[in-house]
Known about the structure:
Rossmann fold; Four Helix Bundle (Hemerythrin (Met), subunit A); 2 domains; disordered C terminus
Amino acid sequence: MDIRAISLDLDDTLWPIAPVIDRVETSVDQWLRTNCPEVASAWPIPAMRALRDQVARQHPELSHDFAAQRRLTLRRAFAPFNLGEDWVERTYEIYVRVRNEVDCYADTAPALASMAAQVPLISISNGTADLALIGLHEHFRFSVSAGEMGVAKPDAGIFVHACERLGIAPEHVLHVGDDPTADVAGARAAGMRTAWINRNAAAWTDTATPDLEVSDLDALANWLLQHKNTTRIQPT
C-alpha cells in the first residue's frame, strides 16, 4: 500500500463513547433539576432518552446531524413549560461541554503524535466531538463531520470529500475506525484503504475484509513505522 495520509474515526476509536454519553445525560439532568425542576421532573433521563429516539425516528432527514436532533429534543421537552430558544441553547451548552470531556484510550495521544510525524492525519466522524475542545487538534490537518457535510458514514460522499480536501487520491488514504459498516465498508466504497481497529477482539463477519486489522492505535502506529519503506509511505 502506498499510504500518503490517514483518516480516523473518533468515537470508540480514540475514546470510548458510552461513558461520555452517560455523563452528558447525567449532567444535563442535574442542570435541569437546578434551573428548571419542572422540566427535570417531567423528563427524567430515561424519558429524555426516549424522546431523543422518537425525534430521530420522526426526522430521518436529521440522521446525519446529532446536534440538530439534540436541540429539537430539548425544544419539545421545554415547549409545555413555555421555555423558548434561550433555554434550549443554555442547556445545549451543557451537552457540548460534557460531550467533549472524553477519557482517551491510553494509546491515543502517543500514537497520534507518532503517526502525525509520518503522514497527514484527518478525522471523519458522524458525531459532534470537537478536537480543539478535547485538546487533540494539533495532530490533525482538519476534521470532517457528518453534521457539516449533510451526509453520514457509510455514505461514500463524506470520504470522497475528505480525500478531495486533502488533495490525495482515495487509494492513497487509509481510513481507520471501529465500525465495520460505517468505517470499513463506507471507506472501501469510496476507494480508500481501510483499517479496522478491533479493541475487543471481535469476530469479523463481513464478506470483504479490511486491508488491516489492529488491536489499538499503538499497533497501527507501529505498523506505519515498520512499513514506512516497504509500503512506500510518502508524507506530503
